[in-house]
Specification:
Blueprint lengths: L10 E2 L8 H27 L6 H4 L5 H22 L33 H12 L4 E5 L6 H12 L7 E5 L10 H11 L11 H12 L5 E7 L2 H4 L10 E6 L9 E5 L5 H12 L1 H6 L1 H10 L4 H13 L5 H9 L1 H7 L1 E2 L2 E2 H11 L2 H11 L5 E3 H8 L3 H13 L4 E4 L2 E3 L2 H14 L2 H20 L8 H13 L3 H11 L9 H18 L2 H18 L2 H18 L2 H17 L3 H18 L2 H17 L3 H14 L6 H16 L3 H18 L2 H17 L3 H18 L2 H17 L3 H18 L2 H12 L10
Parallel strand pairs: 1-6, 2-5, 2-6, 3-4, 4-5
Antiparallel strand pairs: 7-8, 9-11, 10-11
């Protein structure tokens, strides 16, 4: 949001600190005073017969001139500070009260210690210096807006010698203070007698403005419900400043500058935690402290609660309390200290809403996922989008929902948990399930009609987890099967894997073994694409065993193929060959042409890896004849397998030709996964011709692709290839660096055999050949 002084959009408080001239003058004055103290100590020492250190003895005569110079500098700085103080006098300056007159009101409560809000304090000061006489601080419950307003008021109270007034307006409570009663209290505070404290709202407001018209007065109106509650309470005198805090956005006071507050950053939250419990306890358990403040969602109130609980339990570590807060079902219960609770601060604002906005909050606010759109929220609510959009805007103004863009919304974790709690308490089980079903149906329809899922992936995964917990097996499968065809081999495996994990969990909970075996195959495949060989093999074995129990030839063929590919990646070529040949026989018997091509391609890769190029050509040549007419990725993989086989057999020209054809397929399909391995094959052809710069360029292109699509095994192979090429050119330092990167990658994936192989290459000075996919 952009800044204003009452005529535009609300201003968002900036992050980071700012300083003014008075602060610099003050720092200089402190520095000069410190130096003057040292100089005077030297003078006293010399005057009383003391001796200076030998290396300084020759300069003792400078002591008195130094004292004189520093004294003059200090006087000058003090005068300068005093002059600046005509605009911003120090808050400690006492008000001068005429003899016999009552002292000016000083109603400000004690300000709590403010941590991490220097930028916001500076933002308020900027608005005031720019001429704002009314500043509204609006933010969510627990954000610390009242603490900020009080801290600022105490800092600048010296500017207001005629007094500081404070009113708690109770806007967040069930009975906000009426404007008329508020004016009576203000008139009493400025010394008006009982007779003047009677009359209509307009009369009281006029008397208050007249009473303070010529005064320099600070008025803090805390916890306002809306503009109507505070409009009559604002003094009009040029020397007055009014600060207003509210849990709602008050942007309809024409004379007000509006400032909204963000939650604290993780670093600011850690600073607040350290101030409260002690920096030593935070330093002793930094990861636990970070976890603890992260679940507090940047709310100072929540951080204060957990910090106070730790302070009362000196033997607890931040990790111990963070562990208790991990359970989302108990988190709001844990965030309580005495009569202060996060839940009650949210509930107060929630109860102020009308029934329609409450419904939208609990249904849209409990949306699984971090950020959601207006259309998704409307489907979840079961209401027309325009009316939901209006309600969402009102919820944003109430700081119950955030709007990072005009049509996207989010809640921090604590408010999301509160929305879920309200949904569970105030809606029937049938209504809750209907809410989830509408959302599942909308995601499925969007996927099936080509509406795109790229911007909804995280939400889809979150909705699937919720649906699994609710036992909606058929709906989970319908959504997974709608989304799966939109994925390619190059898709981010961090998405593919949880997608099928959700499907497997739903099938397992319902006892549907046929669905479960299919899901396990895809889970294993996802692990394989990322290069995690151990879970890939373990899940493939589980799928194969389940298919054998089902006695389903189709699933047995699919799981045999998946098991063979996992065994090959794990470095067990004999077992891999047996499983793949079994799959080939079953696919041939069932005339599953597409699957037969894919298993032949897998066998070709296995034979190339083990140096059996003749066997590779034998299984791949029939695959060429079986390839379908439209070009698919299978065309590219068969061509690439044949290229590797011909290279191994010494037919380099044929290998180059086939690699080029595979590249054409990858470019035609825009398939990054295939393209990456085309670079791999072409790079090794160049390396064998000792065209090392060309080889290195191809391997770097391969590395860039596989890093982007997170194909772990490909990343390891690219580092290994770059190390081998560098070693061949005598660049041992570069070779060692690349080999170390490859080892680290393979160890991260759990592929110990590949890691050990690269270690041998490293110890042998870089002698290593190509590694097939």
């Amino acid at each position: 949001m952009s800044g204003n002084t009452g005529r535009g959009e609300p201003r968002r408080a900036p992050r980071g600190g700012e300083t003014g001239p008075r602060r610099y003058v003050g720092l200089l004055l402190v520095t000069v005073s410190s130096l003057l103290s040292v100089a005077l100590a030297v003078v006293v020492n010399v005057a009383t017969g003391g001796q200076l250190p030998e290396r300084f003895a020759a300069y003792g005569w400078l002591a008195w001139p130094t004292v004189a110079t520093l004294t003059l500098a200090g006087v000058g700085l003090a005068l300068w500070q005093h002059r600046l103080g005509q605009v911003d006098p120090p808050s400690a300056s006492p008000a001068v009260t005429p003899a016999g007159a009552p002292p000016p009101p000083g109603q400000l409560p004690v300000a709590p210690r403010l941590v991490g809000r220097e930028a916001e304090i500076s933002a308020v000061e900027e608005l005031v210096v720019a001429g704002a006489q009314v500043v509204t601080l609006s933010a969510a419950a627990g954000t610390g807006k009242s603490a900020l307003a009080l801290s600022y008021a105490h800092r600048v109270r010296g500017r207001f010698p005629d007094g500081q007034l404070y009113l708690a307006l109770g806007g967040a409570g069930p009975t906000p203070l009426a404007p008329q009663e508020a004016l009576i209290r203000l008139l009493r505070a400025v010394g008006r007698d009982e007779e003047e404290r009677r009359g209509t709202l307009e009369e009281l407001s006029s008397r208050f403005r007249s009473a303070v018209a010529d005064k320099r007065l600070l008025v803090l109106l805390d916890d306002a419900s809306d503009a109507a509650q505070v409009r009559a309470l604002i003094p009009a005198g040029a020397g007055c400043l009014t600060l207003v805090t509210s849990r709602r956005l008050i942007a309809d006071l024409s004379e007000a500058a509006v400032l909204t507050l963000d939650a604290l950053s993780t670093g600011q939250s850690l600073e607040l935690l350290a101030v409260t419990v002690g920096a030593d306890r935070v330093a002793a358990d930094p990861s636990g402290a970070r976890r603890l403040v992260e679940v507090c969602a940047g709310l100072p109130l929540a951080v204060h609660i957990v910090a106070s609980r730790l302070r009362a339990r000196p033997h607890w570590t931040p990790s111990a309390l963070a562990d208790r807060l991990e359970d989302e079902s108990r988190r709001l219960d844990e965030l309580r200290l005495g009569d202060t609770a996060i839940r009650s601060t949210f509930r107060t604002t929630y109860d102020e809403l009308d029934e329609f906005d409450r419904l939208v909050f609990r249904r849209a606010g409990s949306h699984p996922g971090v950020v959601f759109g207006a259309t998704s929220a409307a489907h979840r609510c079961g209401l027309d989008e325009p009316v939901v959009l209006s309600a969402l805007d009102r919820l944003v103004d109430a700081f119950l929902i955030e709007a990072p863009t005009p049509r996207s919304y989010r809640l921090h974790d604590l408010l999301r948990l509160f929305a879920v709690e309200m949904l569970q308490r105030q809606e029937t089980p049938g209504d809750r399930v209907a809410c989830l079903l509408r959302q599942l149906d909308w995601f499925r329809d969007r996927a099936e009609t080509g509406g795109g899922i790229a911007d909804e992936r995280d939400n889809i995964l979150a909705v699937l987890r919720t649906a699994v917990a609710e036992g909606l097996t058929d709906q989970v499968w319908a959504l997974v099967e709608a989304v799966h065809p939109l994925l390619t081999a190059a898709d981010d495996h961090s998405y593919r894997l949880p997608l099928w994990r959700s499907a497997e969990a739903a099938a397992a909970s319902s006892g549907d073994d046929r669905r479960r075996v299919r899901a396990l195959r895809w889970v294993s495949h996802s692990y394989g694409l990322s290069g995690e060989v151990e879970p890939e093999l373990a899940t493939a074995r589980e799928a194969f065993a389940l298919a054998e129990r089902l006695d389903d030839p189709g699933e047995l063929a699919q799981t045999s193929r998946r098991l063979g590919e996992a065994l090959r990646a794990y470095g067990r070529p004999d077992e891999a060959e047996s499983a793949l040949l079994r799959a080939l026989r079953l696919f041939e018997q069932s005339h599953a042409v597409e699957e037969e091509v894919e298993v032949r391609s897998a066998l070709g890769t296995l034979y190339n890896t083990t140096g059996r190029h003749r066997d590779s050509i034998r299984v791949l040549r029939p695959a060429v004849a079986l390839l379908p007419a439209p070009i698919t990725a299978s065309h590219g993989w068969v061509l690439l397998g044949l290229a590797a086989a011909h290279k191994l057999g010494g037919h380099r020209a044929k290998a180059v030709e086939l690699t080029r054809e595979a590249f054409d397929v990858a470019e035609h399909l825009n398939d990054d996964f295939l393209r990456g391995y085309c670079f791999h094959e072409r790079g090794w052809l160049a390396a064998e011709d000792e065209r090392y710069p060309d080889a290195e360029q191809d391997f770097r292109s391969m590395l860039d692709i596989f890093l982007r699509i997170r194909h772990g095994a490909g990343v390891g192979s690219a580092h290994r290839a770059l190390g081998t090429v560098a070693a061949a050119q005598g660049r041992q330092e570069d070779a060692a660096s690349a080999f170390v990167a490859a080892i680290a990658q393979y160890e991260r994936l759990g592929d110990r055999e590949a890691a050990d192989s690269v270690r041998r290459s490293l110890s042998d000075g870089g002698r290593a050949g190509p590694v097939s996919r």
